[in-house]
Amino acid sequence: MKKRPFVAANWKMNMTAGETRAWFEAWASLAGTEEADVVVCPPYTALAEAARRAAGIAVHLGGQSLHWEDAGAYTGEISGPMLADAGCRYVIIGHSERRRYFGETDETVQKRIAAAVRSSLRPIVCIGETLAERDKGRTLDVIRLQLDGGLAGLEEETIGGLIFAYEPVWAIGTGRTATPEQAQEVHRAVRGRLAEKIGKAASGYVIILYGGSVKPANARELLRKPDIDGFLVGGASLEAASFGEIVKESIRAYKEVN
Ligand code: 13P
Questions:
Q1: N or C: which terminus of the chain carries fewer CB neighbours within 10 A?
Q2: Domain segments of the chain: what residues?
């Protein structure tokens, strides 16, 4: 039995409070998205507006990152308690853009996961290879290193509650999606590595998302694969209508394979 689809929007550095209000107004007019778990990750400055709009509807909120300390002299940073206070239940950790532009490493990923858990935020942990790594045939090695580094020292129970997002760097914002077969190969390897850490049964419950140029036109074929449980969507999530279509295509694929 496949898991109910989990579809998250990563708005990255887009969307003012006003645009957020308009997005939620458009979302409210859509029907048929109820049979999926839907999460929106706005920029910090739009969280208050998003929290007002998401109250009472089946959309949960997530942060796009967090600091590993709960408070202190870290100018420009946001902590787990702040995200929880702003209405977040989830937080993205280790996105490839943060690894590439802001010096995030597997070690800081591990520290941020621990901080998120302290604040009862459910981490969405991102992993993925670059094009050069894929071309050298190193994809599965890179994924394994990121998993082993990011999860080092975490308890089995913590690992079992994480959500993972496989986002091949070459597919992000490029319009070049991984084929369902390419994505499934990595998702299967992720679940296999998790099985070695927390046992096969527990690994079966872990939600593993795909991200990278997900659109209404390719969501269904991807979600039909056995180890793909949902999506982390960038560009196509900025319009409520296209994000809604991705959610609906996911629900359709889920019903087809169950
Ligand atoms: P795109 O959907 O714009 O390729 O972005 C994917 C992503 O990075 C989501 O976190």
A1: N
A2: 16-257
